[in-house]
Design goal:
The complex is a heterodimer of chains A (about 325) and B (about 350).
Chain A (H helix, E strand, L loop, with lengths): L13 H10 L11 E7 L1 E3 L22 E3 L1 H17 L1 E8 L5 H10 L3 E5 L9 H15 L4 E5 L10 H9 L3 E12 L2 E7 L3 E8 L2 E5 L11 H7 L5 H11 L5 H17 L5 E3 L19 E7 L8 E2 L4 H13 L5
Parallel strand pairs in A: 1-4, 1-6, 4-5, 5-11, 6-10, 7-10
Antiparallel strand pairs in A: 2-3, 7-8, 8-9
Helix pairs in contact in A: 3-6, 4-5, 7-8
Chain B lengths: L9 E4 L2 E2 L2 E2 L1 H17 L3 E7 L6 H6 L4 E6 L8 H15 L3 E5 L4 H12 L4 E4 L1 E8 L6 E12 L4 E6 L6 E5 L16 E4 L12 E7 L11 E5 L8 H12 L2 E4 L1 H5 L20 E5 L5 H5 L6 E6 L12 E4 L2 H15 L1
Parallel strand pairs in B: 1-4, 1-6, 4-5, 5-12, 6-11, 7-11, 14-15, 14-16, 16-17, 17-18
Antiparallel strand pairs in B: 2-3, 8-9, 9-10
Helix pairs in contact in B: 3-4, 5-8
Classes of the chains: A alpha/beta (about 325), B alpha/beta (about 350).
Chain lengths: ~325, ~350
């Protein structure tokens, strides 16, 4: 919840700021007010660039073979949040739900400038559809507590549904502004956004807190900064530490391993390099609303698309061949 | 969430802008009619807006039995909050079994908000909808007459069929151009149901400052012939060749995402899952490898000619005629052959 909703005096409201300045006349100019942003990011299989290795002999795609990447539009959401912080100050928290491996995208958020990263990982969240996912993410956002802006990419390339953003907004009971092209103005607790509406654009205004979904034409994501990569490349979630310790200490007892995980976690913690790992209990989630139990949609059937090469008439790339083709199109009334 | 209601209607969200219905709405009415006939129920349309009553007849003509009209000046322009209130309130009151939205920028903003409000399912960008009995693999219970929501997933590499056993209504969005537009019957009538839904300031969260609509410059949907170029065209100048062929054959110019992303041509020409879905009489794909996302937007074309230097390009899997060769040589030949026929 933002300060406004928590009933605190919000200095971003012009009226409040004015009276604050009157009372404290040693405050000369309204200083830029900071905003706290949360960015939801997802690690997805790179469905747009199917590699030869991922293509099976039967003409179907082996999904496990696709490289895992930062969902492209989430990068634009992150960039929008970072740009707000550049101008106004404040914080950017990256939040992701997924298996421990998804910590990779959170590390990338840190490389690009996020202040804090949280991984929501829990086997009981597996097989969540968009409704259950949005419930879990909204609970995580409530647990984070204070926020002014929530950013999501418009959609993830593994499902292309564009549903999770609006559904999080509904669950948080805040307005949504979808298809953000740019932030036009942010003053006090009012944001103006230019949003794409397919055949054009519109500029809309809303009071914070608000959820925004960002499209890929909104900006150019900044690259990872070498200085930040150096500093944050050791950032880990506990699950990753546990896997590392298991690999490095195959003969140790569970207690010894646990002690080592704790020790490494403590070290990272001291250097602010521990990516927080939350489970469903941590966010107070109602388990009936998570995973399969909380998902109204069920996958009834999945058919791989099989590419075949049969069934077309080969036309020679010669004047005669082409002339014959055009003739056939006229004869069967496709053209002319 | 509402309980399954086997007598419930099949609903279409009647999206309108400035007093005219979006094209996709009438396409959906045809599909809704087909589903409703299969189920033996009526077709309903939810029509929110300001002074939109005249649109009801067009809905009746396209197969709607009952139009739920909600008129309010504050509904003149689409806004998530009040529109969500209208659709979810009416759905809770009348308990339709199915609600279909156009997968437009509005439908994709509204649908998920309604689904979350009602705690119902929603399947985005369906390419087909069918009615069938489905057995739950866990409980073995057979659910009668469920809506099969069929859509490409995973970047179009698989086709998934989604069902929704008991968190109703069953809801889906469908892109424009996916369902064929059925012929209108102007003498067909229906029942106009006036509804009022409370719209309080709390849900009027957004204020519209300015709006800019660009005129549609490219009419891909209405074109009988489309000549489309892909990454293989190689350059902006290379697209002149595509333009020339389109000019000679009297067709519109399309493009794959690769061509658009490379800056060869504007996004309004893009065909595919994230662009326009087309079904022309003739589709000529030049220098298009045929990624699944592209094929999803054109494979329903009546005749497809593919030109590509790579004989293994996936585009050939949907082609009726395949020309393995360099489009820079093949297209001039085609233009000459066309001119001879004219």
């Amino acid at each position: 919840m933002s300060a406004r909703k928590r009933g605190l005096t919000d200095l971003r409201k012009p009226d409040n700021l004015r009276s604050f300045n009157l009372l404290h006349s040693n405050v000369p100019e309204p200083t830029p007010v900071p905003y706290d942003s949360i960015v939801c990011v997802k690690q997805v299989p790179d469905t747009a660039n199917v590699t030869a290795e991922a293509m099976k002999d039967d003409g179907t795609v082996n999904r496990a073979q696709l490289p895992a990447i930062f969902n492209p539009e989430d990068l634009h959401a992150l960039e929008t949040a970072l740009a707000v912080r550049d101008v106004h100050g404040g914080t950017v928290t990256a939040l992701s739900m997924g298996p421990p491996k998804a910590a990779e995208v959170l590390r990338e958020c840190l490389f690009r400038g996020a202040d804090r990263a949280i991984l929501l990982t829990d086997r009981r969240a597996a097989a969540s559809d968009t409704l259950a996912t949005s419930y879990i993410l909204s609970q995580a956002i409530r647990t984070i507590g204070r926020y002014d802006l929530v950013f999501c990419g418009r959609q993830a390339i593994d499902g292309d549904t564009a549903q999770v953003g609006p559904q999080i907004a509904e669950k948080l009971d805040i307005p949504q502004i979808t298809y953000l092209e740019r932030v036009v103005d942010l003053t006090g607790d009012v944001i103006q956004v230019r949003r794409n509406i397919g055949q054009g654009w519109e500029i809309v205004e809303a009071r914070l807190p608000v959820l925004l979904t960002v499209i890929d034409t909104a900006n150019r994501p900044r690259p990872c900064a070498a200085r930040r990569v150096m500093r944050c490349k050791r950032a880990r979630v506990v699950a990753e530490l546990a896997a590392e310790v298991r690999a490095e200490m195959p003969d140790a007892t569970d207690e010894q391993r646990q002690a080592e995980v704790d020790r490494r976690g403590q070290l990272l913690q001291e250097r602010s390099l521990l990516i927080e790992q939350w489970d469903l209990d941590r966010i107070g989630a109602d388990l009936d609303r998570c995973g399969i139990a909380g998902s109204p949609t069920k996958v009834h059937r999945v058919q791989a698309i099989v590419l075949t090469k049969e069934g077309f008439t080969e036309v020679a790339p010669t004047e005669d061949g082409i002339r014959q083709l055009i003739h056939e199109l006229v004869v069967d009334r496709t053209w002319g | 969430m509402i309980e399954p209601n086997r007598q419930g209607e099949v609903w279409v969200f009647a999206e309108q802008e400035d007093g005219s219905l979006h094209d996709v709405v009438l396409e959906l009415c045809g599909k809704a009619r087909e589903l409703a006939d299969r189920l033996g129920v009526g077709v309903g349309a939810v029509l929110p807006g300001s002074r939109v009553e005249p649109l009801a007849q067009s809905l009746f003509s396209h197969g709607v039995d009952r139009v739920y009209l909600v008129e309010d000046d504050r509904l003149a322009h689409y806004q998530t909050g009040p529109y969500c209130r209208v659709v979810s309130t009416l759905a809770e009151k009348h308990r339709p079994q199915i609600v279909i939205y156009g997968a437009t920028s509005i439908g994709r903003d509204l649908g998920p908000r309604v689904a979350s409000t009602m705690r119902a399912g929603l399947t985005a960008d369906c390419t087909d909808l069918e009615i069938q009995d489905v057995a739950d693999p866990k409980t073995k219970e057979v659910h009668k007459n469920l809506l099969l929501q069929i859509r490409p997933a995973f970047g179009g590499n698989i086709i998934a069929t989604i069902v929704n056993y008991d968190w109703w209504p069953q809801m889906a969005t469908v892109r424009e151009g996916v369902m064929p537009l059925k012929e209108a019957n102007g003498s067909r009538g229906g029942e106009l149901v006036r509804e009022s839904v409370e719209i309080d300031d709390g849900i009027l969260a957004l204020r519209l400052i300015r709006r800019h609509i660009e005129p549609r410059k490219v009419n891909l949907k209405g074109a009988r012939v489309i000549v489309a170029g892909g990454g293989g065209v190689g350059s902006k100048e290379g697209f002149d060749l595509i333009q020339n062929l389109a000019g000679a054959i009297g067709g519109a110019v399309g493009a794959s995402r690769a061509a658009v992303d490379s800056g060869f041509i504007g996004k309004e020409h893009q065909i595919g899952q994230t662009g326009t879905t087309v079904r022309p009489a003739l589709y000529i794909a030049a220098g298009i490898s045929g990624a699944v996302q592209h094929r999803a937007g054109m494979e329903e074309s009546a005749k497809i000619i593919a030109i590509n230097t790579d004989p293994d390009a996936p585009i050939f899997s949907v082609a009726h005629y395949g020309i393995v060769g360099d489009m820079k040589k093949v297209i001039p030949m085609m233009i000459r052959a066309i001119k001879e026929k004219q």
